[in-house]
Design goal:
The structure is a single chain. By secondary structure, the chain is an alpha/beta fold. It has one domain: 3-Layer(aba) Sandwich (Rossmann fold). The protein has helices at 19-30, 44-53, 68-81, 100-106, 118-138; strands spanning 6-10, 34-37, 58-63, 88-93, 110-112, 151-152, 155-159, 173-175, 185-187. Strands 5-4-3-1-2-9 form a six-stranded mixed sheet, sandwiched between helices. A three-stranded antiparallel sheet has the order 6-7-8, with no helix packed on it. Helix 4 (100-106) links the parallel strand 4 (88-93) and strand 5. Helix 2 (44-53) packs across helix 3. It is globular and about 40 Å long. It starts with 5 loop residues before the first strand and ends with a strand.
């Protein structure tokens, strides 16, 4: 059986309208994915931590407050800082067409604006997540010497050391596939 795609759906910022995020979460769940909905009022730091803890393949951000440029930029920056390069970031909400090129430049895979079909949502983001996950598992992640490589024994590793070059890998690291305790809402069928 193929491993299910894991998607984190989050509502960053102070926006309290989550109906769209819940509709997307349910649509992705109905398409066979495992969905972790984080709830309202999440900071970019909390979202990135959830993505790492849940070993997610994709993260969807729903922003209706107009703070999308700040929230997406901060989330992308934190993902890059933590070395999480194999996660597809997509989003939705009230986002002007003029901002879409800048979000693409930041690395956001797809933005779903009001009126986007559920078929598009189910097909486009998960397909990218599946391709990116396969690519990341077939080759080591770039950047680093043999001593501090993020690839060992066919599994990616997450290092809790602040200086990966000094990490001995004895106690500070865990395999990326290891699951942490889950305390978030799960939509699994």
């Amino acid at each position: 059986m193929a491993e299910r795609i894991r998607v984190v759906v989050a509502k960053p910022g102070l926006d309290g309208h989550d109906r769209g995020a819940k509709v997307i979460a349910r649509a992705l769940r109905d398409a066979g994915m495992e969905v972790i909905y984080t709830g309202l009022h999440q900071t970019p730091e909390q979202i990135v931590q959830t993505v790492i803890q849940e070993d997610a393949d994709a993260v969807g951000l729903s922003v209706l407050s107009g703070a999308h440029m700040t929230l997406f930029a901060k989330t992308m920056e934190l993902l890059a800082e933590r070395g999480v390069t194999d996660v597809v970031v997509f989003g939705g909400g009230i986002i002007p067409d003029a901002d879409l090129p800048e979000l693409e430049r930041l690395g956001v895979a797809k933005i779903f604006t009001p009126g986007a079909s559920m078929e598009d949502t189910r097909a486009k983001s998960p397909a990218r997540a599946r391709r990116r996950r396969l690519r990341s598992r077939l080759r080591p992640t770039p950047g680093g010497s043999e001593a501090d490589a993020n690839w060992a024994g066919g599994a990616q590793w997450i290092c809790s050391s602040t200086k990966p070059s000094s990490c001995s890998r004895r106690t500070a690291c865990r395999p990326r596939s290891a699951r942490w305790p889950r305390r978030r809402t799960r939509l699994v069928r």
